[in-house]
Structures are given as C-alpha cells and as structure tokens.
Amino acid sequence: MTQKQLEEILAKKPESRYKYFIKTVVAEEEIWGLADEEGWLLLEDGDDDTDVLAVFPDPEFAAVFREKGGFEEFQVEALDLYEFLEWLNDFEKEGMKIAVFPTPDFQSAVMTPVRLRADFKEEFDKEQD
Question: What's the pTM?
C-alpha cells in the first residue's frame, strides 16, 4: 500500500473506514492490533469510561496509530479473525466495545460486539454468494 493510499483511507469518515475494515478483515481473515507483554491495547470510551479494544484492517494502519498516537511500547500484532469472533462473546459479557480502525487523532467507529459480529456475518454471507 502506498503512502498516498494510506492517507486517503485514513481521511475517510469513520463509517467509510468501518466498511473498509469489515470487507478487508473478512477477505484476509486477520485483524490487527497493538499489544505488549501485558495484553492488547485498550482505549477508553470517553462517553462512559468503557474499555475499548482498538483494531485495524492492515498492519500499516496499526503502525501509523502506534507511532502517531504515542504507543511506541506496543507492537503491531495479528489476530486470526475466528479467534477474534470468539473473543467477542467475552467482550459482550464484560460490556466492552471495539474501536474499529481508529485514526492517529483517535477518530473511530466504536461498535458493540453484537453489531460487529452481525456485520462480519453479513459480509461472510455476501462472499458465499
């Protein structure tokens, strides 16, 4: 991916980046995030202080967020989509949300596990047709 493509995608509104995320993750069957020896990077939802897991469609976007967001102590890590889908069950029980594809200025689509699972299923179904 070129720098120009990266910047164009990051410049899109959260809803457009969310759609890109769903399509890319279903096609690649991988999700990207930031992790350290203690676990995955959790952000805070400013509205209600909920823990929010930041996830990305490609390692390049996770790396930009890491660098520009001040998370240098974290590494870019891949996670299998099917393992992530299992995590969503725990997130739902714990009341966690997912920050889908945050930009370096922390703009993202914050989704519930239920909504994310439904959107992944819808995209899987489209691919089957």
Answer: 0.91
3-class secondary-structure state, position 122: helix
- 38-57 pLDDT, tens per residue? 999 998 876 677 889 999 99
- Which superfamily does 3-117 belong to? Uncharacterised protein PF11572, DUF3234 (3.40.1350.90)
- DSSP assignment of 11-72 equals TS-HHHHHHHHHHHHHHHTEEEEEEETTEE-EEEETTTTEEEEEEBSSHHHHHHHHHHHT-T
Which residue reads 């120009």 in tokens? Answer: 4
Q: Which long-range contacts (CB under 8 A, 24 or more apart) does 19-23 make?
A: 20/57, 20/101, 21/55, 21/56, 21/57, 21/100, 21/101, 22/119, 22/120, 22/123, 23/123
> pLDDT tens for residues 82-124?
999 999 999 999 989 999 999 888 888 899 999 999 999 999 9
Tell me the pLDDT of the chain averaged across its residues: 91
Residue pair 54/48 in contact (Cβ under 8 Å)? The answer is no
> What does the domain layout of the chain look like in residue ranges?
3-117
